[in-house]
Amino acid sequence: MKQILELKNIDFSYHTADAETLALTKISFSIKEGEFIAIVGPSGCGKSTLLHIIAGLLSPENGSITFYGNLNPDHKINIGYMLQKDELLEWRSIYSNVILGLEIQHKLNTYTKANALQMLETYGLKQFANSRPSELSGGMRQRAALIRTLVLDPDILLLDEPFSALDYQTRLNVSDDIGRIIRGEKKTAILVTHDLSEAVSLADRIIILTKRPATVHQTVDIRFETPDLSPLERRNAPEFKTYFNLIWKELNHND
Fold this sequence. Notes:
- The chain has helices at 47-55, 94-98, 100-104, 110-122, 138-150, 168-184, 196-202, 231-235, 238-254, and strands at 3-15, 20-32, 36-40, 62-67, 79-82, 156-160, 188-192, 205-209, 216-221.
- With 255 residues, the chain is an alpha/beta fold.
- The chain has a 6-stranded mixed beta sheet, sandwiched between helices. It has a 3-stranded antiparallel beta sheet with strand order 2-1-4, with helices on one face.
- Helix 6 links the parallel strand 6 (156-160) and strand 7.
- Helix 5 (138-150) runs parallel beside helix 6 (168-184) and helix 7 (196-202) crosses helix 9 (238-254).
- It is globular, with a radius of gyration of 19 Å.
């Protein structure tokens, strides 16, 4: 698989009138096309900040970020960002919400419209295409938010705790649902989460950060004897508990 993203020795600090707070230091890792990685770490260690840097919303003070080996800041890469809340617009239908990004990027045409409708059908939302967001369950809204991101055909998906606003049962079902969709679409993804079970059930690899200033403490490859398990099936596999306990131990040791 081709390497899509590489971070080398990333440093970042927050500045106020009174002080400078080092948030990230010497962060280095890479991700290949089609890989799903999860980033975990103590609360407030800078996980979301790291996603903002990858997305280009913040600039690192030191270090380098390359996409497909290209350091040129003008090099174009399509990044999809899925937030904790679905941010669907109530005055627009589900279909109109799904194509919003296409409208903004002036990519709305016969092909992309048809593709959006096809994705709604594939992932069980076509019958709700003309519904308002308030008429859908929380899980269905998150599925619509993911489709809105996927219709833009991103090179890489950034997922910032996208299930945290859901109740536990819905969270399990939606993470399974969205995990299957991302795998089915063969997308590259980086997930930030506080939920270790979620990380183990979804990821190919888990990056464990230290407390602030965060650096990479350890990287754990996730391998199950039975291939192609769904996230829910992974939770019932014998390896699941082993990985969970290993990461829990590393996080507590890190504290």
